[in-house]
Amino acid sequence: GAAASRGQSQGTSGQARQGAQRGRPLPPRPGRPGGGARLHVLATLRAAAPRQRLRGRTNPSQAVRIRAEDFHVHRHQQHTPSCLILALDASGSAALHRLAEAKGAVQLLLEQSYARRDSVCVIGFRGAQAQLLLPMTRSLVRARRALTGLPGGGGTPLASALQLAHEQAGLLQRQGVTPILVVLSDGRANVTLQGVGGRLQAQDEARHWARAWHTTGHAGLWIDTAPQPEVQAQQLAQTLGARYLPMPHLQSQRLAQALQDARPAR
C-alpha cells in the first residue's frame, strides 16, 4: 500500500519506466534478488508450493523447500516527471485582447500541470527574439507572475521561440524530465533568428525548428490565437508533430482534453 501511494504521488504524464524500488506495483517476475531487486516472498512461496512432493517434503510440519528457480522479485512502474514548455506569442499580430485570452488559456494549462504535479517553463516571444521568462518550476505563483508582466506588441520571432524551446527540452531530458511543448501563436513569423525583419526567411527558420522538434519525438500542442484558423499555424503544427487547436472555438474542457491527448501514453 505504501509503495502504491508513493507511485501515485509522482507526476503521471511522463514516459513510463520500470524499476524494482518505487512506483506503482506490477505483477512480480521470476528472478534473483540483488542489485536493487527485492525478493517477493509470497510469489516465491506460491511458485515453490506445487513442487514440494517432488522435492521429498511429505510432512506439513517440515520447512518449505525453496530453490533458486522459485525466486520472484518485486516490480514497480514509475513515470518520469513532465514539464510543459509554454511558448506564448506576445507580438503585435496577437493583438491585446487575443493576448489576454491566450494568457487565460495558459492559466488553465498551469492549473492542470500543478494538479498533476508537473513542472512548467514559460517562453515569451515578441520584438527581436524569444525570452525565457521562467525556467522549470512547479510554483503556480511564479508562473502567473511571469505572465502578468509580459507586454504585447512588436514582431513575431517564432523561430527564436522554437529554437529556445528545443534547447530547453534538451536540458530537461538530460535531467530525466519529459518535455511537452505548447505553442500559443497565429504562426505568422516575420522576424529572423538574427532579430531582423524578413517574412520568408523567418518562416523558413520557423519550419526548420518545428521539424527539429518533431525529430525528437516529444509531444506538442499548437493553440492558434488568430481570430480565424490560420493556415500557417496549421502547417507549422503539422510540421511540429503537434495537435492543432484553434482559439476561436476554445473551451476549458476542450483545452483540457487536447492537452491530455498531447501527453505521452501511459
What is the global morphology? elongated
- Going by helix content, strand content and strand pairing, the class is alpha/beta
**Largest sheet, order of strands side by side?**
6-5-4-7-8-9
Number of helices: 8
Oligomeric description of these chains: single chain
**Share of helix, binned:** 25-40%
**Computed Rg:** 25 Å
Compact overview of the structure:
This protein is an alpha/beta fold.
Overview features:
single chain; 266 residues; alpha/beta; 6-stranded mixed beta sheet; 3-stranded antiparallel beta sheet; elongated; disordered N terminus
What does this structure look like?
- This protein is α/β, with parallel strands linked by helices and 266 residues long.
- Helix content is 38%, strand content 23%.
- It is built from eight helices and nine strands.
- Strands 6-5-4-7-8-9 form a six-stranded mixed β-sheet, with helices on both faces. Strands 1-3-2 form a three-stranded antiparallel β-sheet.
- Helix 6 links the parallel strand 7 and strand 8.
- Helix 3 runs antiparallel to helix 4.
- The longest helix has 20 residues.
- It is elongated and about 90 Å long.
SSE inventory with pairings:
Layout: H1 2-8, E1 16-19, E2 24-30, H2 41-48, E3 72-79, E4 82-89, H3 96-115, E5 119-126, E6 129-137, H4 140-148, H5 158-174, E7 178-184, H6 199-216, E8 219-224, H7 231-240, E9 243-246, H8 252-262
Helix pairs in contact: 3-4, 3-8, 5-6, 6-7
